[in-house]
Amino acid sequence: MHSSNSSSLSKLALQKFKKDFWGVFSLGFIILVGLVAVFAYVIAPDNSEYANQMHVSIHSQKPGFKVNMLVLPQETANKQSVLSAMFFGNKVPATQIPISQYHIQDSILHYTEYATDGLQGLTKSIPLNGLSETNIIQSKTFLFGTDKYGRDLLSRILVGARISFFIGFIAVFISLVLGIFMGSVAGYFGGRTDALIMWFINVSWSIPTLLLVIAITLALGKGFWQVFIAVGLTMWVEVARVVRGQVLSVKKMQYVTAARALGFTDFRIISRHILPNIMAPVIVISAANFAAAILIESGLSFLGIGAQPPMASWGAMIKDHYNYIILGKPYLALIPGICIMSLVMAFMLVGNALRDALDVKT
């Protein structure tokens, strides 16, 4: 009876969620960003590792910029597997040189390297060695332009989605494991256990989040996984407080008293009877924590203690280009800023839709 009742409530919540246009739209957008994050190197025009091919001669070009590229295949054999290149980028990409003009004479390619600001590029020659013009000369369009190092901004945005998206998953997972454990133990057992855990929660709560993240990052070192762990360890407090409050109100219910009378263990009562009935507010707070994790990671990358170069990160991209806002090229900082804003707003809208759908009073 209990399971069928919970199943009907889940169906009712799902029906209510489906009626919320912005909730469903945001969920679709989040799934799309997730797919982009996983298959970034398949979609990105620059599939080198971290989309890090630099062409200083074409730095800070506007969206839609076109240029001819001389593509010289690598002499060393590329032993990288297809799956590795698909998920981690091409570790030995072909050498690309932007050129302004070229001509072929007697199987020798004569070309002039691209130069900006009215300068004349160097003129060089290389033998074709049986290669055709279509193989080594490619017209390349930079849809989002290039950054200050001459890297393809669109590719950096696509690859950078991976950090912003996955930090939400890992940080929320860590916060749920810690928060649910601490909150349920404090709420269920009460007394000195509750007082001790609440003291620890209040101490953690009193430390500014960014300061705590910086301290953890400095202790663990700068890097990709360190930031994930640091953000996760700062977000469990909210989950623990919510879970504790819910457990305090639920543990006096008749079905909990009946479970105790039947001699069930405390672990079974908490995991099988209490937690399934208090997950609605935890799911809602997890959606909000997703958004908060993305913002914290962006802030850390902006401060230079998040993901380290040459790794692509939306926060680091804003840090690299925020001074271009007053130099007439604001899109270099605005495009990653809009990406962060869109993803955070999508998670917040999904959180709001889940809150409305899981509210039994409505």
From TrEMBL:
PANTHER family per UniProt: D,D-DIPEPTIDE TRANSPORT SYSTEM PERMEASE PROTEIN DDPC-RELATED, OLIGOPEPTIDE TRANSPORT SYSTEM PERMEASE PROTEIN APPC
The answer to whether keyword Cell membrane applies is yes
InterPro entries to which the protein is assigned, alphabetical: BP-dependent_transpt_permease, MetI-like, MetI-like_sf, OppC_N
Q: Would the keyword Transmembrane helix be found if you checked this record's keyword annotation?
A: yes
Q: What is this protein called?
A: ABC transporter permease
Keywords of the record: Cell membrane, Membrane, Transmembrane, Transmembrane helix, Transport
**Residue span, ABC transmembrane type-1 domain:** 161-351
The residues that cross the membrane are: 21-44, 163-189, 196-218, 224-243, 278-296, 331-354
What domain of life? Bacteria
What family is reported?
A: Belongs to the binding-protein-dependent transport system permease family.
State the annotated membrane topology for this chain.
Multi-pass membrane protein
Subcellular location field? Cell membrane
